[in-house]
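cron nightly-structures :: item 1 of 1
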Amino acid sequence: MSSQFSRTELVSRGVKGGAALLLVGTAAGSLAGTAGAAVPDNDLASLRLLVAVELLGADFYGNATKAQPYGAAGSKALARAAFNEGEHYTSLAAVLTGAGQTPATADDIDFTYPDGSFDSTAAVTKLAVDLETIFLGAYLGAIDAVQTPSLKLPLARIAANQAQHLATFSELLGRAPFDLSFPNALSIGAASDALATYTS
């Protein structure tokens, strides 16, 4: 595997021989229940996209933590969000590994942010809200799209956590912590396009 590949390759790279058999151990966390399930290629493409989501989340929260935009309470929220993204990544990566694929790592993606993204509390918080809106939409779209029943609940649990992040940073931005009764889901294509602003 080359050290860099495009978002399209990240989503479209298939596995040898069609649908893969998951061999997932306890390291998969909430996705461990998918052990032994046959996972179609389209589901694996969704998981690869979600891996990119988690890598972007981890990179963003790492940079935001270094920027130290908040007092104690906000800093704890950043640290906890970074921890959550790491656990999500570990779970998703374990499923892909069990399916015979090599999950992307941070070294495979170039992350880019708008100028000044980490220069002020307001900039960091706005970017957190923008990213978490994408992350939540990507998970909701994946939950709708995946065909493997045992993936749906674990992905929904991660989506719930992303919604918690979105509510927290919306409130820190001075917005209502929740608004829409039915948050928007993003198709795999729309989620990939949304990530294009921040990843290559």
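cron nightly-structures :: done
The beta strands are 20-21, 38-39.
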